[in-house]
UniProtKB/TrEMBL annotation:
This is Quinone oxidoreductase. Residues 15-330 form the Enoyl reductase (ER) domain. It comes from the Bacteria. Coiled coil: none annotated.
Length: 333
């Protein structure tokens, strides 16, 4: 396997006292999990889920040592099934990558070729990772709102966790698609960032949940993209207008949903689940195609901070504490 036999990867190890330590190690392609597709990873990214994996959260990863990274973009080295040719540029997001399968925080991955999609024209490998699972999930959420019949003329769309990865790209896509977007954030100082992405209004997290204990709240939103869950999602549902649609993809606030049935049975509100991990291939390609064309955020370059494997320690802690604005791209070149 020539000079690719050895490569650098971030490895998470469980120590004897059940702590988790992270270090950059030399690994061998031969030690990677089985699969018909070997990719030289150029870029990966940091998602909230990666931080959970890197710190030993059993809901994401149970087998250690482990290399996280639920996103990878790079060039095909070899493909036994013939689905791709050497040199093809591909994106991998979701499935088991970075969960129990060694992921994109290493210079090579070996995976089933069904997990990869061809890099669409219009985006670079780096841009694909500036989008990553977060961008994919944001776009899937907007696609589902669109398909549910939510139109710009219907009123304001709320995005929660708006400065985060999914939230910031959702704001940008919705604004580009002509919607009026209200961005809800816990970071007051990021108002300019959110307005720059196209938000028409920026509100605090508390504004969303005010009065959440009531059975229903005043109708405010034609639709919403929620990443927070918990009381936030409950309050969003209670303040969604008649016939509106809310997407649910995240749990940064809480995995619980303390809501009653009134938004559904009195206002016909719909709650749509968003899953990027097992998303079927046809839909996956459609979402990437939109991200490469009409939904490609014009501010993508400014939304992404770049770091190396060595920089991930600080970034991992930051994302766990809701401290990242925009996206983090990991450079593995
Ligand atoms: P980020 O950490 O980048 O963004 C989350 C944002 O939520 C933060 O930046 C912050 O934004 C806000 N936030 C953080 N903590 C809290 C809190 N306690 N209460 C309210 N708001 C909070 O994460 P991602 O955007 O990568 O992911 C967001 C969520 O979506 C995660 O739960 C993730 O697991 C999930 N996800 C699900 C996917 C799926 O397929 N279903 C795919 C991708 C992500 P602000 O300060 O602006 O409020």
């Amino acid at each position: 396997m020539g000079d690719m036999a050895k490569f650098k990867a971030l490895v998470v190890e469980k120590t004897s006292d059940k702590q988790f330590v992270r270090e950059i190690r030399e690994r061998s392609v031969d030690d990677l999990p089985p699969g018909d597709l070997v990719i030289r990873v150029h870029y990966s990214s940091l998602n909230y889920k990666d931080a959970l994996s890197a710190t030993g959260h059993p809901g994401v990863t149970r087998q250690f040592p482990h290399t996280p990274g639920i996103d990878a973009a790079g060039e095909v080295v070899s493909c036994e099934s013939g689905a791709f040719a050497p040199g093809d540029k591909v994106i991998v997001t979701g499935y088991d990558l970075g969960m129990e399968t060694d992921g994109g925080w290493g210079q090579y991955v070996r995976i089933p070729s069904e997990w990869a999609v061809r890099l669409p024209e219009g985006v670079t490998l780096r841009e694909a990772m500036a989008l990553g699972t977060a961008g994919f999930t944001a776009a899937l959420s907007v696609l589902k709102l669109e398909r549910a019949g939510v139109r710009p003329a219907d009123g304001d769309i709320l995005v929660t966790g708006a400065t985060g990865g999914v939230g910031s790209i959702a704001v940008s896509i919705l604004a580009a698609a002509g919607y009026r977007v209200t961005a809800a954030t816990g970071k007051e100082f990021d108002e300019d960032f959110l307005k720059g992405l196209g938000a028409t209004a920026v509100i605090g997290r508390d504004d969303v949940t005010a009065g959440a204990e009531k059975a229903l709240l005043a109708e405010r939103w034609a639709g919403a993209v929620d990443v927070v869950g918990g009381q936030t999602l409950a309050a969003v549902l209670k303040s969604t207008k008649y016939g509106g649609t809310v997407t649910c993809c995240g749990l940064v606030g809480s995995p619980e949903l303390p809501v009653n049935v009134y938004p559904f049975i009195l206002r016909g509100v719909s709650l749509l689940g968003i899953d990027s991990v097992q998303c079927p291939r046809g839909l996956r390609e459609e979402v990437w195609q939109r991200l490469a064309t009409d939904w490609k955020p014009v501010q993508l370059g400014e939304m992404a901070t770049e770091c190396t494997l060595a920089g991930l320690e600080v970034m991992t802690q930051a994302i766990l504490h809701g401290g990242i604005t925009g996206r983090v791209v990991v450079n593995l070149l």
